[in-house]
């Protein structure tokens, strides 16, 4: 052997064994007989190769070869790998196991390496059941929050008239409870100012159950944005769909993190083998069951995508929405129930009363992945007397089809119907439609073609003809990059042609310039999003507009100014990095303030994916994960501590004793080694205390260094 110590090891063990035998004889004791096979194996010379399984080193272990078999020190195998070995012998108090021939182990005596690949058929299979239990993401805590949402706008019209509008809404949130009080006013020249007041209190037991009582608040079932006073409630029962089995192979053992539709299901540390997860909950109508495996070979992902029709509920699932009180000054009550009958069939029933008139609707919806049809009967609801309704949408090969009809049972001549077909032709989206509406347009038809002429230029042509009017339009759009876009549109009607043009310049994510021209006048507007949302604009005909809106938030001992909230759960995100652009669901939410904090809102209806743009991060900022899923939130306001996800570094210039750049040297600080570039610089973590270490120059010289918290250049002590 090339290693003298390894060559001496068998001899030393033999002498040790001989000494033990002599000592036992001298004491009048007889040694236990050694089986012939064990004696023969232990008599074979011993090596200490590096053992590599699946390309991953286990370290150096003893190896003996006998009769074409490999006898490997048993300690090289880990739990779950017991079937990799067959018989076991002991040599000098070390257990050796004969490697299973099916492993096809290879030994390179020159390189002193033993290699073989994992064999799943020799590893155990474990079965784990999974359940969908509420999991609060790490670093997320509920907190009480006070907020004031405000909006102010003023306008001067081309004729000299003035208009203004303002609103303020104060709210308090703590856990599942929230309450708010709002006031809004609006006025125009020559008209008295109108003032409206609203108030509500809400209790959110969990994401599937909420109750709210309010005055002059939006209606859940009619689409009215205000005017409802009373009690509202929403409740849903989620039996959910499941995946029977999801198999993950972990041939080296490791850690598995499992999620479904972005919602964490749990994590497990397992021995080498195969893991079968049973009854995996499937969250939402589409997504993926994702396993993130971390083992000695690194990190990898395994996923299984699932998709279900969005128009129907899972069997046994249901949703209930109800409200009762007054709407528009009249007594009002209405309720909606949806129930999943089968995997492709859902029943919808709605009943309501307003000002003494009772109405309702019953419909059945059938759906597959590419077809959906709904058939129902409506009575005195949504502007209909008594009518049958049919709606269909689906795909037939390359063609998308649509059909809708409302058939009044008491007057068939008032039937309204529409049909459409769409497809792709030569890279262009094309569509045809035809319809009949006796109360408005009579017969009408339309056609549209849209597509890209080049990478930057897009063309859209549309026409519509009817018994009462016809229009034809051509739109040419141009977008050379993410900052610029422009469009010109020509419309021809019975009154003659008209030309409109627009252009948008967005130099940064939080500001935008808009220009528009039409009907002989031009208009320019500037928008900015920061601690508030600001929009100011002016036109060539004398009109001027200005809008300011935002939110003041008091939480966790601080007051924050942020852009207006649009969803029902407030998030106080702490990153520790100032000026960081934050996105949720692909939408820009704003930049963190000087303390690295941003306040925004997300919807309780589904999972929110908080994300940073890694490509735009400064070089001195390191990030562990680019996104953070927020799921299962029940509190109406939460604080998310994401600071551990980010690390800040600084560029430090190192110099030798003579003041020269320490090019291509190395520096060790707090046990961490950093390589220097051609200019003697390196990125080191920011520290609030004095750091001490050692600088090694390229020529081998070494010297001590002391680095202060704000120091950007350091010379050997």
TrEMBL record:
<feature type="signal peptide">
    <location>
        <begin position="1"/>
        <end position="31"/>
    </location>
</feature>
<keyword id="KW-0732">Signal</keyword>
<keyword id="KW-0614">Plasmid</keyword>
<protein>
    <recommendedName>
        <fullName>Fimbrial biogenesis outer membrane usher protein</fullName>
    </recommendedName>
</protein>
């Amino acid at each position: 052997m090339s290693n003298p110590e390894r060559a001496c090891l068998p001899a030393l063990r033999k002498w040790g064994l001989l000494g033990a035998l002599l000592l036992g004889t001298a004491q009048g004791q007889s040694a236990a007989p050694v089986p012939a096979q064990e004696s023969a194996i232990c008599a074979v010379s011993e090596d200490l190769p590096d053992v590599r399984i699946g390309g991953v080193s286990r370290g150096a272990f003893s190896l003996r070869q006998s009769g074409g078999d490999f006898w490997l020190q048993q300690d090289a195998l880990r739990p779950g790998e017991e079937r990799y070995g067959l018989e076991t012998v002991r040599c000098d108090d070390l257990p050796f196991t004969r490697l299973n021939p099916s492993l096809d182990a290879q030994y390179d005596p020159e390189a002193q390496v033993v290699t073989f690949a994992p064999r799943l058929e020799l590893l155990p299979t474990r079965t784990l059941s999974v359940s969908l239990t509420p999991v609060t993401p790490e670093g997320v805590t509920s907190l009480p929050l006070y907020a004031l949402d405000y909006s102010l706008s003023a306008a001067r019209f081309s004729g000299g008239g003035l208009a203004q509008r303002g609103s303020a809404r104060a709210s308090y949130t703590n856990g599942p409870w929230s309450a708010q009080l709002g006031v809004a006013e609006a006025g125009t020249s020559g008209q008295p100012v109108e003032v409206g007041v609203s108030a509500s209190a809400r209790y959110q037991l969990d994401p599937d159950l909420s109750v709210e009582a309010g005055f002059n608040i939006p209606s859940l079932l009619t689409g009215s944005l205000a005017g409802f006073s009373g009690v509202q409630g929403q409740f849903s029962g989620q039996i959910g769909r499941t995946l029977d089995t999801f198999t993950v192979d972990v041939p080296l053992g490791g850690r598995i993190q499992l999620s479904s539709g972005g919602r964490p299901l749990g994590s497990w540390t397992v021995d080498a083998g195969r893991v079968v997860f049973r009854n995996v909950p499937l969250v939402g109508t589409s997504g993926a069951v994702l396993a993130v495996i971390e083992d000695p070979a690194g990190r990898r992902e395994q996923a299984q995508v699932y998709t279900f029709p969005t128009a129907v509920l899972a069997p046994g699932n249901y949703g209930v929405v109800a409200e009762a009180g007054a709407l528009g000054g009249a007594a009002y009550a209405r309720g909606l129930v949806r129930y999943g009958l089968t995997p492709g069939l859902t029943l919808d029933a709605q009943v309501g009363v307003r000002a003494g008139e009772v109405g309702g609707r019953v419909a059945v919806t059938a759906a597959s992945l590419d077809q959906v049809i709904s058939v129902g009967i409506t009575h005195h609801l949504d502007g209909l007397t008594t009518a049958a309704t049919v709606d269909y949408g689906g795909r037939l090969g390359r063609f998308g089809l649509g059909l809708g009809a409302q058939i009044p049972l008491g007057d068939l001549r008032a039937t309204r119907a529409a049909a459409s077909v769409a497809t792709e032709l030569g890279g262009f989206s094309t569509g045809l439609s035809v319809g009949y509406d006796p109360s408005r347009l009579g017969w009408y038809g339309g056609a549209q073609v849209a597509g890209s002429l080049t990478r930057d230029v897009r063309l859209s042509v549309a026409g519509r003809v009817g018994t009462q009017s016809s229009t034809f339009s051509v739109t040419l759009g141009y977008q050379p990059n993410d900052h610029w876009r422009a469009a010109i549109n020509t419309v021809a009607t019975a009154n003659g042609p008209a030309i409109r043009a627009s252009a948008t310049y967005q130099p940064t994510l939080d500001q935008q310039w808009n220009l528009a021209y039409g009907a002989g006048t031009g208009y320019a507007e500037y928008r900015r999003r920061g601690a508030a949302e600001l929009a100011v604009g002016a036109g060539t005909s004398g009109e001027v507009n200005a809008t300011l809106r935002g939110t003041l938030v008091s939480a966790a001992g601080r007051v924050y100014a942020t852009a207006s909230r649009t969803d029902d759960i407030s998030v106080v995100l702490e990153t520790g990095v100032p000026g960081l652009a934050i996105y949720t669901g692909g939408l820009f939410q704003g930049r963190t303030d000087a303390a690295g904090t941003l306040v925004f809102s997300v919807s309780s209806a589904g999972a929110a994916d908080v994300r940073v743009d890694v490509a735009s991060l400064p070089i001195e900022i390191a990030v562990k994960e680019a996104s953070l899923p927020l799921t299962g939130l029940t509190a109406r306001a939460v604080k998310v501590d994401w600071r551990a996800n980010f690390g800040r570094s600084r560029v430090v210039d190192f110099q030798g004793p003579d003041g020269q750049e320490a090019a291509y040297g190395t520096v060790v600080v707090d046990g961490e080694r950093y390589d220097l570039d051609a200019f003697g610089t390196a990125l080191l973590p920011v520290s609030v205390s004095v750091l001490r270490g050692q600088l090694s120059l390229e020529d081998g010289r070494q010297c001590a260094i002391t680095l202060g918290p704000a120091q950007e250049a350091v010379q050997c002590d």
